[in-house]
Amino acid sequence: MADTQLAKGSCLCGAVTIEAKEMNPSLGACHCEMCRKWAGGPFMSVSCGSEVKFTGEEHIGVYDSSPWAERGFCKKCGSGLFYRLKGDQQYHMPAGLFENVDNISFEGQVFIDKKPDYYSFSNKTEDMTEAEVFEKFGGST
Prior knowledge:
Blueprint: E1 5-10, E2 17-23, E3 26-30, H1 33-39, E4 43-47, E5 52-55, E6 60-63, E7 69-74, E8 80-85, E9 91-94, E10 105-110, E11 126-128, H2 130-137
Parallel strand pairs: 3-10, 10-11
Antiparallel strand pairs: 1-2, 2-5, 3-4, 4-9, 6-7, 7-8, 8-9
């Protein structure tokens, strides 16, 4: 696992600011249908652990997207803020929210079998299919 770092950022309009105590600079992409609908393409995120502080919490909306996770967004500008696992409150957050993160590296892709043919990445990454994700982390299709 890569070393974690303190990361600060905000939504597009600045109404919500974020401080993630332990951002892992390993970027991942999710190609599942829900993430593609939510993000308008693959959800490109970094793991931020469970210690994330927000200011402007009154501007955060939360959508209960599955039995195991929920998604947060800014109610003012619509920026996606997080995908949070309900069980352990682990945050996966769009890398683009954060400032000064030049050390991020693209490490993995999940739901690779759900990726549409109209885009692809040239990076060599660790890839997992939908079945492999659910086998490793639980849940169901």
